Structure formats: C-alpha cells, structure tokens
Amino acid sequence: MQKRDDLFVRNEREAQLVDRAAELAARFAKRAPLHDRDGSFPFENFKDLKDSGYVKLTVPREYGGDEISLYELLLIQEQLGRGDGSTALSIGWHMGLVLHYRTIRSWPEELFRSFCLEVVEKGTLLNHFSTERSSGSPSRGGIPQTTAVRTDGGWLISGRKTFSTLSPVLDTFLVSASMAESGQIGEFLVRSSDRIRIEETWNTLGMRATGSHDVILENAFVPDDALIRSYAAGQKPKESGDASAWLLHIPACYLGIAHAARDFAVSFAKQYHPASLPSPIADLPTVQQQIGLLESELLVARHLMYAIADRWDTDPAGRLKLIPELGLVKYVATNHAISIVDKAMRIVGGASLSRSLPLERMYRDVRAGLHNPPMDENVIRNLALRALAEME
C-alpha cells in the first residue's frame, strides 16, 4: 500500500495512529478479494483489530481506553477503508458508537463502565441493531416491530433485525424494541443466548464482507439493568451536545476506498506504457485531466470532513449547530467517492472490470454509501430549511 505525506495528519500522535491503521489496512487488503468473492466474514481481520488494541481507541481514558478525538477516529477509519471497505465500515459502527456513548453518557454509568472494561480487557465489540424489513429505517421514523414484554426481573425481547452488521462476531449488542406496556421505544443491551440466532441473508452487490445478516430474537431475556433508555415512539431521544457526529465514520470509510482507487489509478497511469505511445499514459493530457478531476474531488471532500470534525472537537457548545454540515460531509464524501472510483476506472480502461484488480470491488463498495444514513434528500432538505429560516 503506497504511503505518502498526508496534510491532514497534524502531529506525532496522529501519525502514530495512522501508521498503526495503515499496517492493519495492508493486511486487510490482501484478504479482501477472497472475502468479497465468497461473501464471507473476515474473522481474522477482527482478531487483528482486537490484538492491536484498535477496538479500545475510543473508550474513555478513565476506563482504560485511549479516548481519541473524532478527528483522530476519522483519520484511522479512512486509513482502514484504503485496505478493505467492508472491515472499515463494520468496525466503524463499534468505534463510533463507543465515542457516541462516551460523549452523551446516556447509559447507566456502572453499566457503561463495565462494558468499557470488557472492550479493553476482552475486545468486546458493539453495534446497534435497529433496522427491520417491515418498519424500514429508523432514520426515516420507522417504529420497531420487535417487542419487549415485561417479565420477572427484566424483559423478553422478540423480533427480527436486518442489516445487522458485525453479527457473526458479536456476543453483545444493542436492540431497539417497542415496549408493550408503555408504548415507548426502549434500547436494550443484549447478550448472546440460545434464544438468539443469525440467519445468513447478506448477499449483496457491494460491502459483501460486513456480515450484515438478519438477527432473530425469540423471547430473549434481558435483565432490568440492561435497559439503556426509553423514549416516546416517533420521537428521537434528545442527545444534547452530540449531533450524532460519530456517524462520520461512514464518509471516512468511503473516502478511504476512493483514496485507494485514486492511488491504484495514478500508479497504473505512471507504469502503463502501450506500444502505440512514446511514454506511459500518465503523459496524456486526457489522463492528466481525469487525474486532476478526481484529485480535486478527493481534496474537497477530505477538507470538508476534517474541518467539520475539528470544529466538533474544539467547540462542544456549538455542536448542534453543525448538524447540517455533518450531513453535508456524508453527502459530499459518498457522492464524490463514487465519482472518484468511476474516474479511476476510466483511467485504467477495460482492465478495471477484471476481478483480478481491486477497482471493480471498490466500485461496488462505494455504491453502498448512498444507503447509509443520513440519506441524501434529508441532508439537502436540512440545508434548505436552514437557509429559509435565516431569511425570516
């Protein structure tokens, strides 16, 4: 994997974090074609992530973690994306959620402390399973059909969750469920048991190795102290001061994929010298034009992402005002990533369609970004509403 100076790495600490992520990414890149072909889950990648201490980087320092910033999280997640998009996106949910809950402290503190210690000591991973086939995406207001029914000492949870990324490797996860008695929606910390099973439904165009299968719960018991919080159906819980900035792990991943495609195409252009030309195709004005265009798209997206992350880190009081910009980062990054990979394939030409090269996998993987939250139309609408409100 090509390494070069990165103007977004600002100090020695960030350089060390990026170097650690780059070493992991290089391993993942070698394994990515096989897991993409088979749609298999890369268990060995997650062993490497645990063994390296990567999974505890966003854990609070008081509980044994490194408490890295949002900016630092994006640096390392982007780096992982250069190696394997599926692994980067998958671990990003764990990394981002831990940062999220570290920031808003919505868990009962003793439960959060004990969970963080598990992450540090055992490498325990986390994701939040909320999407369902019948109710749709929670980001669009879907109310879970999964139910939580009161029982002695806790709750019995039943339902089916879709898009359950990381499911093959999780023994602890969050579940959103409708609480039968109150009609509210509860978020529960669930542990694996014989009442929980995985149905391997994930067989997709891109991001084939995320293990985003269906998770089925059949009267799975969770104790009283495993209820994280509850809120009225149709209302998002208040998360003061956070603005869900942790979701920027998504654009970081897709920009990582785009960056890898850019590197491959530029390297190819400098080396490919057809007999019909006096020099490599990198000397052709048409190829230079394509390289310049994809480079401009990559720089615009990265500047935007890291500038907003830095503002979020340094101005906690102003975080909620950044909600439109945080959505804009995802919108720009994912759409630019698609365009960058497309241009990279045009530079390489027909060979880019070969499964022996990484570009066709990257092209399929970046398409998935359109379906991660927030949705493009919601981002644009939020920007429009803010502009209209400013003129009142």
UniProtKB/TrEMBL annotation:
Q: Which InterPro entries match?
A: Acyl-CoA_Oxase/DH_mid-dom, Acyl-CoA_Oxase/DH_mid-dom_sf, AcylCo_DH-like_C, AcylCo_DH/oxidase_C, AcylCoA_DH/ox_N, AcylCoA_DH/ox_N_sf, AcylCoA_DH/oxidase_NM_dom_sf
What residue stretches are annotated with the Acyl-CoA dehydrogenase/oxidase C-terminal domain?
A: 251-368
Q: What class of enzyme is it?
A: oxidoreductase
- An example molecular function term from Gene Ontology annotations: oxidoreductase activity
SUPFAM superfamilies the UniProt entry points to? Acyl-CoA dehydrogenase C-terminal domain-like, Acyl-CoA dehydrogenase NM domain-like
**Which keywords accompany this UniProt record?**
FAD, Flavoprotein, Oxidoreductase
Name the needed cofactors. FAD
Q: Which Pfam families match?
A: Acyl-CoA_dh_1 (PF00441), Acyl-CoA_dh_M (PF02770), Acyl-CoA_dh_N (PF02771)
Q: Where is the Acyl-CoA dehydrogenase/oxidase N-terminal domain?
A: 12-99
Q: Does the keyword Flavoprotein apply?
A: yes
In this protein, which residues make up the domain named Acyl-CoA oxidase/dehydrogenase middle? 131-219
The Enzyme Commission number assigned here is: 1.-.-.-
Query: Which PANTHER family does the record associate with it?
Result: ACYL-COA DEHYDROGENASE, ACYL-COA DEHYDROGENASE YDBM-RELATED
Which protein family is named in the record? Belongs to the acyl-CoA dehydrogenase family.
The name under which this protein is listed is Acyl-CoA dehydrogenase family protein
- Organism expressing this protein natively: Brevibacillus brevis (Bacillus brevis)
